[in-house]
Each structure stands twice: as structure tokens, then as C-alpha cells.
Amino acid sequence: MTAFRSGSFDSRLLGRVTGELDFRGRSPGGAWRRLDWRLLAVVVALCVLGVLLVWSATQPRLLVDGGDPQTYLKRQALNVLVGLAVMVAVGLADHGTLRTWTPLAYLGSCLALAAVLTPLGKTVNGAQSWLAVGGLEAQPSELAKPVLVLTLATLLGERPGGDRRPRGVQLGLALAAAAVPLGLIMLQPDLGTAAIIVVTVFGMLLVAGVRWRWLLLLVGAGLAAAVAAWFLGLLKPHQVARLLTFADPMADPQGAGYNAAQALVTVGSGGAFGRGLFQGDQTAGRFVPEQHTDFVFTVAGEELGFAGSALILVLLWLVLWRALRIASQAVSPYGTLAAAGIACWLGAQTFINVGMVIGLAPIVGVPLPFVSYGGSSVVACLAAAGVLTSIHRQTPRRL
Amino acid sequence: MVALLFLTLLGRLWQVQITDGRRYAGVAAADHVRHIAIPPVRGRVVDDRGRPLVRNRTAMTVAVDRAALRRLPSGGESVLRRLAKTLDRPYREIADRVRLCGPGVEGPCWAGSPYQPIPVAEGVDERVATQILERPEAFPAVTAEPQPVRDHPYGKLAAHVLGYVAPGDGDHPSGLTLVGKDGLEAAYEEELRGTPGRREVVVDSEGQVLRTVREQQPTAGATLVTSLDADVQRVVERALRRAARKAESGAAVVLDAREGRVVAMASYPGYDPGVWTGGIAESAYRRLTGGNAPLMSRALQGQWPPASTWKIVSTAAAAEDGYDPRGSYDCSGSYRIGDREFRNFRGVNHGPMNLHRALVVSCDTIFYRFAHQMWQRGTEPMQEMARAFGFGAPTGIDLPGEPAGRVPDKAWKRKFWEQTKADTCRAARKGYPRVAETDPARAAYLKAIAKENCARGYVYGAGDAANFSIGQGDVLVTPLQLARAYAALANGGTLFSPRVGKEVRGPDGRVLRTIEPPEAGRLPVAKKTLAYMRDALAEVPRSGTAAGAFAGFPFGKLAVAGKTGTAEAFGETDTSWFASYAPADDPRYVVVVVVSEGGAGGEAAAPAVREIWSGMYGLEGKKAALPKEKRF
């Protein structure tokens, strides 16, 4: 961490973070050839695994209810296809196009987050986080994440005077830009997403070279706000319960700790190689709530065992590794910041999601990137992969 | 840093899945694997000729799935209320039955697995069951299924002997299984029950069965073939009902004297065993156990002084003690012991006679004298003989809840006095003020007795011996004990431990085991003494104390022998006994009838016995209940 002490922007730094400084191996080619195929392969693999796990998690319930057992399989496949289309579209766009569209996307995203709090919104599991328009449902907080990353990259990536670090105005603007969606998401309230955004913003400020003492000041303010929220009773009872059960999940296994306990049991029962896809009795018995969305990792845990769950973790790690490599290779601060922001976001989200499933983090409702069921989440993650692709395409070729 | 985060996740994953994997797999299995007992079909009970006395029929059983119920708003109370209304039962009753038994939960409650549907109403009308089945939206978590329930084709017939089934106690493997609680159902529980099957299923979080892992079919219970004859039983019950209707209660026993088997056994009042089907209501249970207790199997459990039927014991004891049965003894009107006059029945003076005649006219004073003389010698040959005849101990019949009866002797008298002297002496001091309010004479009498008992109650006096000799006082016998004693007299001295069960047959009809009534002992009485007594008893219905009751009886077709008994109880009508066997020259059956508060033996019990013999053998215009080969 001493490397950050300088507070200056240095793309090589990120290379050190990832433990790599390999700039070779770039092959020449057109726009298509310049796509990051390793990233794409990993992302598609994650999506395919996700579709299978969602299928396995939803089939028994649908069979019992007499519905089409492939309903969720089809929907998630469609989500992935839409997401891949978005990824390709974003990936083929250059920085200028992305920057042009970013303010509009930011505005739209904030409006959507505001609309969620109106009667247009739908409450699921204690948080009003869904927007239902016509027959379509969307979770604006998911889509807000890539949009916010791009917005901050735009705001912090400008270096008009050739400065090494962003100016105070830029920092102020960036904080303001982050505060609006963050505030709206806290109002839902969706603590998990808020935490991810905080981590992402903090990471981007760090990478942007914002002064260390300002960052410390931000951390202090954030802690003060958290303590105030706890003692002023701004948290909803279910949130308090979840945080408390994190401390001792087996204290009330039928009540507040039910999710945590069942998730742990289900993952643990998989053992080394799991029960086989579609063979998990805990999964088939629907003992874990929200199993196809936020707790999809439990399906992998039970049915694919340690081997399968570790594979998913390795694949996600590969995505982050690619993101950090792309960040370190980016030609512009914008590209570096965007890629690093995406890495922070996906990293935080992965850690919180898997952490809550295996008892390392409190239960907060966030999906597992690329794998969990949900159009908004899948599209947002694949759009992020598109952004990475776009940045990667514009890194200079080395011969 | 990223690598560190992922290593943390991987490390924890390893810990959860590899290190603790087995433990979590166990927890998971406990979550989703359920063991369900499949109740076997309970075996039938058939009579001697294969006619079913107890069988099974299917009845619609309404059951509630507790797991599903609990997930409904307010624990499904509205559903239970609607169900109670549809079933026309009180809501409380239904709600109680779906509670799980546990500490602090008073019955009724469910003792079985909480994952099994809990039956709340059995034998539900088809139309009501259809109403429930057709509206699953109004009755979530409620099912109606045909289930086997106990069926008694003969209704109330032999209800006491057959017993009943009720849901098992908490320690039983499954509350769904009905367990025999009384009578043959309880005695042959192991064989009738069968072996439950087992099903191992995987359930989901709502308790719905996803698939069956393993299944083991139940084995149906065995059939119990009894020596009861439904036709004879019907004859006996009709006769008993007629005799005891105006009395308090009564009982009748028919034994096969040669084999020691029970052919019929009846108690009055009776009850309809159908009340047990579907769980008994509390009010019905109170009716069965309170008042004159129709649930009580009096033939087995009722205890009365045997009165003059006891004289076979006294006669045998006297003969074995050296008194010549053919000798002449004075049957005076009364016999004096100390300052007390022991009177003959109704004070009649019959003059000198032998023991044959003493039995025929049921002379008391001759036996008083024997008892007095034995008492003076300090021996207790009558008590010894009573025990040899099987009194004072359970017969060991294959029915539960049999009392021992009582053969009072010196040791008993002392023990009894020690147990009761605190109460007796208090009564001796204070009298009976409560009784005195309504009946001063009785209170004074009771106080005098208490005074006497307090001071000298431990002494087995000559008066006790005298009372013993004629089966009065503290002697208590059950109808079954008396019947087997007469069977021993009739068959030449073999005392059986009677049996109702004859064979146990598997569901396929194969005989699994045969049941032989074991010999409990032999009478220590000379063959010629037994023959002498049988001669005497053969005369009782012709010219003795039962002559009135047997007037006009076709003795040419069936020679009935017997002995009357009239037990006196202070302030109550006498208990009426008649113990008999036939045919007199080669006895096959024993018939004993007791009518509590029925009057003299010749008045209530003997006519009932006559009716039973006529019904069994097809005399006096009746149809024979016994098949031809079983008559002589």
C-alpha cells in the first residue's frame, strides 16, 4: 500500500497490484481481432454456468406448481443474449462515444432510481428496488453501477493542465455525482449495493490519485454516518437482524439467521465434488430462499461441490485480473479509471455475495456478477465487460 | 490485494465444503430426509367358526398437514374453524388434535411425527369428505383419505373381551398406529399389529414429498382365531341382559370344561365399541367409566362373594379333612358360635342329612360346624382348598387387567387390619355423623362394627371361618375364577388357565401358532369325592334350590348340574349366582352367571343359565347355537 502514498496517478502501479507487468502478447488485427477474447471466454463461461445453476434452482418449484420447468432457463438465456448484445455494442464503441452518452445515461439512471421510490416502484424483501414499466421489470440500482463508474471516470479522468491528480472541483463534482445515486439507493434501502458503490467510488478516487488525507477524511465521514445511522435507528428491523445474525448465524436458525444457516448448510453439504447438477436435495427442496438470484452460489456449492464453486471463483478472479490488466494498460486516465472502477465494483460485489453465502459477510441482497438470475444484473455486468473490451481495444499495440 | 480476497474466499470455501462438509451434509440430510412409518393393516379377530368379530373397513379420514398449516396466516386458524364447522365438531377439539404432544401439553394431542398428516376426524361421511376435497382453496393443508378403521360386524357383541384400540402413547414409534388398549386387542397386540413399513422420502422446505428414496412395505397383522362362538355369545348376552336389566350389573362365562377354552364371556352393561373409532369424545369416555361403568369387563374383573357356589370348595375341603360325605350331619336352623347365632338361609331347619343333600338344599349350618371345628383345631384346610381351586390368584387368562380375587385367612386378616386400623379406629371413636343424619340406625350399626374391628379386627375369629365356609364375608371371586373351578370339578380335577385365543394365523392363512390352555394345577381331591359332588349338583336343578328356575326343563335331552349362590350385602339386594355344567354325566361346558343385586341365586341367575343352555343346545323351541359336533 505504500505505493499509493505518493497519491499520484501511475498506471504501472496497477500492474504491481495485479502482480503483473506484462505488456506483450498483443496480436495485430481489426476491431474484432482486438477484442479481449480471454475476457470474453471467461465472461461467457460464467454466464453459461449461471444459466445452468438458475435452471437447476428453479426447476423443482416449477415442476411442483405445474409450470413450465424451463421458464427461468429461457428467461435467463434471454437476459444473457440481451446482455451479450449490449456488451458487443459497448465494446465496439470508442471512448468518445461512451463519454458522449455517459451524461445522458447518468441522468436516466438517477431518474429511474428516483422513480423506484414513487408508487411505480415495487418492494421486494423489504427494499423498494424494482421498477415495473409495462410488462418489463428492472432494477435501476444494478444498471446505475456501470453508469456511475463511467460518470466518475469522465469527471476524474480530465487532465486539462496535464495535472497528475484531479483538481478539487473535479473531486467535488465526482463526490456529488456519486452522492445522488448513492442517496437514492440508501432510501430504498439497499445496503449491499450502497456498500459496493462506496467501495467502487473509494477505489476510483484512490486510482485517480486523490490526496490521501482527503480520502481519510472521507472514510471518517463515512464511519460517522454509519454510526449515526445505527444509533438514530435509520436502519430497518430486517437489516439490523441480518447484521446481528452475521455475528452468530446459528443463534436463531429458524428466524433471522435462516438464510445464513441454510446457505452454509447447503454449500457445505456439497463436499468436494458436489451431488451433480440437478441432483441437490437441498436445492430441489428449496431450503434456501432467493436461491436463483442472490444465493445462486449455494446451488454451485451443493451440486458442483468445492471443485465447481472454486471454478466460479477462479473465473471471477480472471475477470478482475483482466480488468486490472486493462486498467494498467489503458492509454488515458479515463480508461484506467473506468477499468479500475469496474474491477472494484465486481470485486466488492463478488466478495460480498460469496462472503454472505459462506458466512464471511452479513446477508445483504446483492447478486453474484454474471451468474445470478436477473436481467438488470446480467446486462449491467456484461455492459461492464463491454466497457473493458472498449478500453482494451484502444490500448496501443506493442510489437 | 484482489488475490488475497479470493484466497480468503477459497480458504473459507475449503473449510466449509471439505473440512466440515460431512457435518453439513448430515445437517442437510436431517433437513430434507424424512422417515415415514407406513402403518400395517391390523389383523382380524375371528370366532371359532371363522366369523370375523373384529375386522377393518375403510373410512374417510380427514387429516391436517401441520407443516403446511403453520405457514398459513395466523397458523391456519380460519381454515381449522371452517373445517370444524364442515365436520360439525367443536373448533377446540380439532385445534387440540393438531397440537404436538410435549411437556405441559395435556391430551388430546398428536404424538406422531409432525411431518405426517394428523388425522382429526375418522369415519367422516363421504359427502362431507367430498366437500373438503373439492375445495382445496378453502381447505389448504387439509386432506381426506380412505383409512382402515376397526369394524365390529356384530356390533356390541363381546365388546369387553375384544377390547379396543386407541392411538399409541408418545413412546410409540408412530402416533398414527392404533394400539390395543384392552381385551384381546391389547393381549395380542404384538401379533395383531403387524410390522409397519418404512418410507424414506426427500421433502422440500414446505414438507412436500419430492421423491421416495427407499420403501419397505408393511406386513399385515396376523389373524387371531378365538374359541368364542358368536352364536353362543349372542345367546349368553341376551340371557344376561334379560336377567340383569332390572339389577345393577351382571356377567356370564361359558367355558369348555374339557379344554379350558372360553366359549363366551359377557358383561352387563355393555357398550358399542364403535365409540372408539376416530378417537373417543371425552363425554363418551366419562359415560363409559362413570356410573355403572359399562367399560368394565365384569366377567373378568368383577369381584363378588361367591356365596353357596363356594360349597364345592367347603365340601371338598371337609371330605379331604376326613369328614365322610355320606355321614349324617345336622342341618339345624342355626349354629351358635360364641354369643352369635349363624343362621341357615332363611332360618330353615332341614334336620340330619349327608353332604349330598346339604349341597342340594344348600344347607349352611353343616358347613358352619365344619369351619368352626377346623378353626378350633387351628388349621385352614378350607383356605388351602380354595387356593387349590384357583381362587385368590388370577387365572392367567389371555386378557389384561385380571384381579386376584380374595381368599381371606389369618395372615390376610391381620394385614388388612393393619392397613385400615387408622380409619377404623377413628370411626369407632367418632361414629358416622354423616350417615347418622339420614339413617341413625345404620350409623349406630356401622359404629359398633368399627369399634369391634378397631379392637379385635386382626383376629381371624370363628365367625370369619363360618362366613368363609359359605362363601360370604370377605371372600371375593370373579365369575371367570368360579367358572374354571367348576370346570375343574366337572372334568375330573384339571384346573386350566383359560384361553380365549386358539390360533394365530398369518395374513396368508397359515397357522403361526396354536394356543393351548395350560394346566394351572390339579384339584387335590379324590376322584370319588368329585364324582360324589357332581352327583349332588346334578340334582340341584331337578329338585334342589334351582328347581323352580328349571321347572319343566328337558333334562332328558340335556342333564344340567349346578349350584345356586345368594350373596348377602348389607343394605343392598342380594347378589345372585348360578354355576352350572352339562351334560351332567360327561360334562363339556360350564356356564356361570352372576347378577349383582339380582336377588337369590335361583331367582335371577338360574333362569338366565337355563336360557343359555337352551339356546346352546336348541332346547325349549330355541335354535341350537352350538354346532352338532360340539354339543356332547
Q: Report the oligomer.
A: heterodimer
User: Helix proportion of residues of chain A, in percent?
Assistant: 55-70%
Mean pLDDT of chain B: 88
Radius of gyration of chain A: 21 Å
- Greatest chain-chain interface? A-B, 43 and 33 residues
Mean pLDDT of chain A: 82
Tell me the distance between the termini of chain A. 32 Å
- The counted number of beta strands of chain A is 3
| Low-pLDDT segments, ≥5 res of chain A | 1-29
Our count of helices of chain A gives 14
Envelope shape of chain A: globular
Report strand % of chain A: under 5%
Order of helices and strands of chain A: HHHHEEEHHHHHHHHHH
Strand content of chain B: 15-25%
Assign an overall shape of chain B. Answer: elongated
Query: How many beta-strand elements of chain B?
Result: 23
Give the C-alpha Rg of chain B: 31 Å
Structure report:
The complex is a heterodimer of chains A (399) and B (632). Chain A has 399 residues and is mainly alpha-helical. Chain A has one domain (28-393). Chain A has helices at residues 11-18, 37-65, 71-92, 95-116, 140-157, 168-187, 191-208, 212-231, 237-247, 258-268, 281-284, 296-329, 333-357, 375-393; strands at residues 121-124, 127-133, 136-138. Helix content of chain B is 38%, strand content 21%. The N and C termini of chain B lie far apart (105 Å). The model of chain B is unreliable at 171-175 (pLDDT under 50). Chain B contains 23 helices and 23 strands. In chain B, strand 18 and strand 19 (511-514) form a beta hairpin. In chain B, strands 2, 3, 4, 5, 10, 18 and 19 form a seven-stranded mixed beta sheet that branches. A five-stranded antiparallel beta sheet of chain B has the order 12-11-23-22-21, sandwiched between helices. In chain B, helix 10 (230-244) packs antiparallel against helix 23 and helix 14 runs parallel beside helix 22 (527-543). The interface between A and B is large, with 43 and 33 residues.
Please give the structural blueprint.
The complex is a heterodimer of chains A (399) and B (632).
Chain A: H1 11-18, H2 37-65, H3 71-92, H4 95-116, E1 121-124, E2 127-133, E3 136-138, H5 140-157, H6 168-187, H7 191-208, H8 212-231, H9 237-247, H10 258-268, H11 281-284, H12 296-329, H13 333-357, H14 375-393
Antiparallel strand pairs in A: 1-2, 2-3
Chain B: H1 2-19, H2 21-32, E1 33-38, E2 45-46, E3 52-64, H3 66-71, H4 77-87, H5 91-97, E4 118-124, H6 126-134, E5 142-151, H7 159-162, E6 164-167, E7 178-182, H8 183-187, H9 189-193, E8 197-203, E9 209-216, E10 223-226, H10 230-244, E11 249-256, E12 261-268, H11 282-289, H12 298-301, H13 311-320, E13 329-331, E14 334-337, E15 340-343, E16 351-353, H14 355-361, H15 365-377, H16 381-388, H17 410-430, H18 433-438, H19 440-456, H20 462-469, H21 479-491, E17 494-496, E18 501-505, E19 511-514, E20 519-522, H22 527-543, E21 561-567, E22 575-582, E23 589-596, H23 605-617
Parallel strand pairs in B: 2-10
Antiparallel strand pairs in B: 1-8, 2-3, 3-4, 3-5, 6-7, 8-9, 10-18, 11-12, 11-23, 13-16, 14-15, 17-20, 18-19, 21-22, 22-23
